[in-house]
What we know:
The structure is a homodimer. The first copy, chain A, is built from 14 helices and 12 strands. Chain A is an alpha/beta fold.
Amino acid sequence: MGTVTIKEVAQRAxxxxxxxxxxxxxxxxxxxxxxxxxxEAIRELGFVRHGSASTLRAGHSRIIGLSxxxxxxxxxxxxxxxxxxxxxxxxYAVILGNSAGSLAKEExxxxxxxxxxxxxxxxxxxxxxxxxxxxxxxxxxxVVLVDHPAHRPDQCSVTVNDVGGGQMAVAHLLGRGARRICxxxxxxxxxxxxxxxxxxxxxxxxxxxxPTSTLELVEAPAMTARAxxxxxxxxxxxxxxxxxxxxxxxxxxxxxxxxxxLAGVNVPDDVALIGYDDIDFxxxxxxxxxxxxxxxYRLGQIATELLLDECDNPGTHAHQQxxxxxxxxxxxxxxxxx
Amino acid sequence: MGTVTIKEVAQRAxxxxxxxxxxxxxxxxxxxxxxxxxxEAIRELGFVRHGSASTLRAGHSRIIGLSxxxxxxxxxxxxxxxxxxxxxxxxYAVILGNSAGSLAKEExxxxxxxxxxxxxxxxxxxxxxxxxxxxxxxxxxxVVLVDHPAHRPDQCSVTVNDVGGGQMAVAHLLGRGARRICxxxxxxxxxxxxxxxxxxxxxxxxxxxxPTSTLELVEAPAMTARAxxxxxxxxxxxxxxxxxxxxxxxxxxxxxxxxxxLAGVNVPDDVALIGYDDIDFxxxxxxxxxxxxxxxYRLGQIATELLLDECDNPGTHAHQQxxxxxxxxxxxxxxxxx
DNA sequence: AAATCCGGCTAACACGTTTTAATAGATCAC
DNA sequence: GTGATCTATTAAAACGTGTTAGCCGGATTT
Lengths: 338, 338
């Protein structure tokens, strides 16, 4: 039938099944001559190792789990690409789970991962409760937090400095001479939004200015282009436009841009505009968008490397909380030449 | 330690391990009273089934594989979301593989999936060679093709009518009175591009017009916004703008839009513009973009349902080649009110 | 009352691999 | 030439679950 086992390979090569296993897992322990014979038999019979049997005996699989909050968001997609490529290069497969912001779905995904006895889990948690992960770690499943800081020292995490990103953005606007800045944030229940806002405030203070008069906060109900356009329309209604707008998200920024351009406002001369994330579209917009770039792909890559190091070298592994620095990308929307 | 087995649950509930297995797999065969006792024991001990042991014994897993061409493309992301959600609801996990257009990576991904003895595979193949899938099917792994037509009647596939989509787009432009239309396509090695182009030509013929004088073909080297903008700049250089442009892709269309607007061309009054895919950004663009919408999420959903039906009911399953119809979405770039 | 049936449960083997302890053969020191 | 050391291989025992055949006791039939 379709299923050819280690035993048949052994018979074909004239050795015992144990030797086949050695060829597969510790090739250096087997004499070159027999190794060659075995490899030939494997090819002739089209043998492929039964991963489940392997996992059952070894106690752990060569699969890692990845649970993200929103598979539709380019940020997470880029992270996922980094994870997939890194894991694949090291011989690991990736099981993908999309929690879609729902805790119930996240729980269910983690349960599936536990059933599969995955080697480890990468997760961008929906909330701040660390209890769920302990449940996994009791089962010898390593966990690395992605885009979320670890609460405990014996836990790896990979994040990007959101406070620093907010600071950069607003410092840039201040440097261009803006003194009445609007910060259009997303829901402040989102940690990233809170920190970017904090960074914005710090930049104002660092410049020796008064935060309350310099920075006006507007909280959008969602981080979408539609919400951004609505926010822009409300600004226009008040009659007093800010000199610059810092959006917590490129999608918001794109919406604001559209709203302003439709009303005949000149960007960047009347109002300067900067977003966050540097999604592909930021560069392609009618007025190309200045933004804060995050090393998304690298985020996934490093998280995966940390996870697999923790799995493969449990003795020497040192838990790390890595924080990347974002990068200011200047384009037309804050007055840079294209 | 962390690992609690069926045996311990059995002891706790005062039954044999076989009964636990029955509770998990055929609950109706066990008396309500004992079932309740077992379920309680499971909860108390925090038992979770060992997926690999289960797979080994049962001969198949509760995992399906998904191999896509480009995880960064919103089209595939949306398909993946449909797959993930549908599979998850039916108790299946999804292993994600990104072939990134490389056949070698695709091969490697399929190998990993074969090792895991996945229940089935959803794949958007990089080329037209059907031999690779036969290799899987010999191992009792079902295969459903996504966004690619099946060559054989005993093979399921789910596609979207690309010829029809091209037809719709150009018919709409003709209906607005355009008689000099530019079709900006992507590389014609891509099947989808070839078919959309064919549809465009058919629409012209159906309107009783001459294809060669009505439709000008421009082939972009890539389907990106940058390539679109460059194409627009070349059109402007010639001095003779078309009355309308049909792009094989929204990203191309966004680039064209940017190029035209920067040159002071009015869209849609001077040049009408329509894209393909209806990515989120199409609606958010400065001049919102008319486009051809594909039922991406549903594509993933139906493909998954077909696959699991083929797995669970091998007797009654009827292989199907399903083709969805795309949908015309009208916005400002072809003159519709916003 | 004996024969039959049936629901509910158990015992035990099988799935394909990894790993440990043991074996046989070869090499080496003395 | 004898015993010790080392190398290449093997036999056999796990890993945790699913499944099959069979057992037991009570209910139903004749």
